[in-house]
Write a structure and sequence with these properties.
206 residues; Rossmann fold; two-stranded antiparallel ribbon; 10 helices; 14% strand; binds magnesium ion
Length: 206
Amino acid sequence: MEKRFKAIIFDLGGVLSVGKKEEFAIGVHEFVAKKLKLSLDQYMDSIDEIYSAAISGTIPRQKVVAIMSKNLNITPKALKEIYFKAYKKNFRRDKGLYHLALDLKKKGYKIAIISDIWCIAKEALLDNRYYKKFDVVIASCDVGSRKTGTEIFKVALRKLDVSAHEALFTDNQKWNLIAPRKIGVKPILYKNKRQFMMQLKKYGVI
Ligand SMILES: [Mg+2]
């Protein structure tokens, strides 16, 4: 019998790249706020709107960096340095899962990443060289849509050259599984590598 699935798509934050602390996103923001000697509230107030627009990719990178630098009262260079440090400090790659992905590729599956991420986090966490064996890597800030909508998944499927029915997507947030399910992608809520492998077995992938 021919296998149903041809592509396995991974989330980045909380899946391939996990927080050292439970609340990893907060870890990054706390780190930056502290460096800039702002309370978390002051910091959040000054980045809130631009930060979510930056993830959605509705504003170009240059403008995002310019507005954030202005709001936080630092140079674009300093902004980038602080965030790079924050992401490197707060995230670590799950090497076990990474190698599972590469094994899936050896077995003939296409592998991909879809991440809701803003430009600076992408540059810090989504290293092109490290993830070069992935067939497709898509960041929300580049495509102008997030995982709560179907568009980003359609872009991925087109690039992977597979139909929705042939793709499996795993994410650690329930709300990111709604849109892919709607278009026929098989969703798996990611908890840990062991649980994910059990799901892959259940679906005849491994
Ligand atoms: Mg995630």
